[in-house]
Write a structure and sequence with these properties.
Blueprint lengths: L1 H14 L6 H8 L3 H4 L6 H24 L6 H18 L1 H9 L6 H27 L8 H13 L1 H4 L8 H16 L12 H23 L1
Helix pairs in contact: 1-2, 1-6, 4-5, 4-7, 5-7, 5-8, 5-10, 7-8, 8-10
């Protein structure tokens, strides 16, 4: 079954979902079409497996990270991005196939795929919002930032080619660091407490600095 899925993904990526038949898949695996039916009855079954692996499973993993109470917002975002990058690096053909075949997916499968993508976006936006509210992240546009980070992760499926000398883990670590750097406040600009008084303390720092500048210009 694993070989059937691998060959189906390869053919879907090369020919598109509509351009691939079950006979094509049977030929690629070396089975007759009747024997193939012992494992899979339709192309839709293969797509369901791909959607579960590339979107729904990843979405569930991100939800688990977001719900962790032992991580702050920056650590959660780092873990979310690592998880997403490793998934794209380990299953690039599945992701590319779904990305290319998005408009051709049967309605039910397309809806599941869309819901998985929405869940991924929701988990990332939630963590960014938490970070902004807690004073760890700058007040950025949450949706644009989340989409930018997700796009950075998804693109790995197109350009990264793992090998023994070029493993996925350091790549995931670097991209996760980049994502946190996109939103993190400077160390001296993190409030002592995520409260209005904490924000006032930061404003007071700016006022004190402005007062020094004005005093220097007047002397």
């Amino acid at each position: 079954m694993s070989e059937i899925i691998d060959q189906a993904m390869r053919l879907f990526a090369e020919r598109g979902y509509d351009g691939t038949t079950l006979q094509d898949i049977a030929d690629a695996v070396g089975l007759s079409r009747p024997n193939l039916y012992n494992y899979v009855k339709s192309k839709e079954e293969l797509l369901v497996a791909m959607v579960e692996a590339t979107t729904q499973s990843v979405a569930n993993s991100l939800r688990e990270v977001r719900q962790r109470t032992d991580l702050d917002s920056a650590e959660k975002l780092h873990a979310l991005v690592r998880t997403l990058v490793l998934s794209r690096a380990e299953q690039p053909a599945q992701f590319r196939t779904l990305d290319r075949s998005d408009q051709a997916l049967p309605p039910e499968i397309a809806n599941n795929h869309l819901e998985g993508r929405r869940t991924v976006l929701r988990e990332v936006t939630t963590v960014i919002e938490e970070g902004i509210t807690g004073g760890r992240f700058r007040p950025v546009d949450v949706r644009i930032t989340a989409l930018s980070i997700i796009g950075m992760c998804n693109w790995v499926a197109w350009w990264f080619h793992p090998s023994p000398s070029h493993p996925a883990d350091p790549v995931a670590e670097q991209i996760a660091d980049n994502a946190v750097a996109m939103v993190a406040r400077e160390p001296g600009r993190i409030p002592d407490a995520p409260t209005p008084l904490g924000a006032v303390a930061l404003i007071q720092q700016d006022l004190d600095f402005l007062t020094r500048l004005l005093s220097a210009e007047g002397s």
